[in-house]
Amino acid sequence: xxxxxxxxxxxxxxxxxxxxxxxxxxxxxxxxxxxxxxxxxxxxxxxxxxxxxxxxxxxxxxxxxxxxxxxxxxxxxxxxxxxxxxxxxxxxxxxxxxxxxxxxxxxxxxxxxxxxxxxx
Length: 120
Hints:
Blueprint: H1 2-7, H2 13-38, H3 44-56, H4 63-119
């Protein structure tokens, strides 16, 4: 998602919403771990709602643009090669796992079919 945002610099409507969803996703991850403590603060849910409305606001200095340009983008640009390497490694591991599972399922199905055929 972040690579797509960087690729399309014209900031059309899709890019603006993609920026919002990247910021919202990061906010949700942070909130998942901190919600246990934050909900005790007075007006936490009102503040959260105001923050999310600011992130969705239809002007150029909305929260998602500000947070993306000041925090998320610099962090991404600094670490994007590491993230790309990790994603590439995970993709390779997922492919190897899928191949081995497919091989084992095929082997089990064949042995089950042979066993069923020998029993008849």
